[in-house]
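Lab notes, practical 5.
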Amino acid sequence: MSPNALIPSHRKPRRSASSRALRAGVTGGFLTLAVTGATVPANAAEKPVSETQEMPTITAALATSAAKSADTAQQVAFSYERQALQDATEAKADKAAGKAKAAADKKAKAEAEAKKAADEARRAKEAAQARASRSDARSTLSDVSGGSSSSSSSSSSSSSSSATGSAATLVSFLKAQLGKAYVMGSNGPASYDCSGLTQAAFSQIGIDLPRVSQSQSTAGTQVGLGNLQVGDILYWGSAGSAYHVAVYVGNGNFIGAQNPSTGIVERPLNYDMPTGAVRVL
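Output from the prediction step:
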């Protein structure tokens, strides 16, 4: 017997070549792969071993979910696009509105400037007419106030001295008020303003005058400053917008409540030439 006969061999038994088969199929909605292999050892037959792996497949639910995700993404993109278009439209409208407002402001400014220029031209024309009227009246009334024409002076003196009836009563009342104070808004008896004095004077003879200068300057018939009579109301400023009134008392003089400094005084016409006159007697 050989000495090596009882020593077990450490070599592994040889394995025969493996044989594997691949099967594929769909079971319960899953893709099924089956791999079958058989290994036969050298000294004995072994049972075949079967190996199976399942992999998920694309189901109808998964496809529907993917489609919904795509629709959602498309809707979001459409929403962004619509918002961008709306923003662009609003920006364009704001720009157009800004231009329109600027044009309107420019037009309004031009109209205001035109109106201002027209008003200034109107005032300048009225002032020129007033100066011309005063100049004419000054040259005409120079004789009445003791100027070059003795006949005019005599006529003025006679008109004053011959004042009778209502005119004489009017002048008498006015002279009695000389020296009293001028107080804005006052109508006597201790103080007056200019229109308050004329209203109070004419009320003595039964004539009811309006309270303010503007209305008194149009209360009667307009007369020229070269044709004044005792009792005519003198006014300064334009008829209907006069700022001061007094009463002509003859001899080229008037009586009026002038201002807070002088009070009620009698002055010659050339002291402050009036603009016009109205006759109510």
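Observations recorded by the TA: Confidence is low (pLDDT under 50) at residues 137-162. The chain is about 45% helix and 20% strand.
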